[in-house]
Amino acid sequence: MKPVKHIKIKNEMKVNELVSSFGSCGFNSRKLSEAVNILEKAIKEKCKIFFGLAGAMVPGGMKQVVIDAIKQGYIDVLVITGANLTHDIIEAIGFKHYIGNEKVNDTMLHKKGLDRIYNVFMKSKSYLRLENFFTKHFDVLSKANNPREFLWKLGQILSKGGRKKARGRESILSTCYKYNVPIFCPALTDSGIGLMIWSQTIRKKKINLDFFADIAEIIEIAWQTKKTAVFYVGGGVPKNFIQQTMQFTRPASYGIQITTDRQEPGGSSGASLKEGISWGKLHEKAKFVDVYCDATIALPLICASLKDRLKNRKIKRKK
Length: 319
Description:
Deoxyhypusine Synthase; 44% helix; alpha/beta
């Protein structure tokens, strides 16, 4: 047995040094350190990393962390919720999320035209601008044959800028487009984007998105990959979409999950990665870890530590 080593905080201590020291501690600090080790190993072995992003990560301030992870090559395939993409576009067209307070009077917020996401606020009028954005670009977007192509076209539009004030503003969508990272949103209709599409159809505009084509495409990506890793922030639809892909192709060799949910209710968000072995979604000899922590704490620490370790790594990616 190895003794627990107590963390010693030093002046000008690097994030990677702190996270590495977690490895000699107990509880979830050690699991977070293990997550970095596993992800580092998966990247060095050239695994294709399927990244599932659920939860209100864009309003919570995690957008740039995800963008940097795409640029650094820590994400090869992105599966994301429509809500995160909605907020991603809202920021790309010039709106912001604001530091708020969960104890505030919500009736008062509604009268002031503010929407609350826990302790973050957003102006309600951003949805009006979002609708104008979709109206302006819908003729181009409607040519997409499936949701993945639809998101690709959105990324292309956003990468070119829009309003003068918004030019140069990065988004997850535009970064996936620029760095050739496939992006999937299986529950696109369950979001502000879904409502924007619907609002165009009731104006007699036509669009036909084949959601099953996305299943075929992500399965084809997995089939062509010798070794895969899965990295989940939260659970829900993004996690399950990736998990069923692994089950239908070959089980993942590495796995990381950041969640605050529990296993007992039987939901995907709380299910341990180990459970996936019984389904053939995770290899029986896979290296994996479940990190039970708020993702707004764990994700930046993992990515910052990893960036320090892999700072001399050369990334070959088509732009």
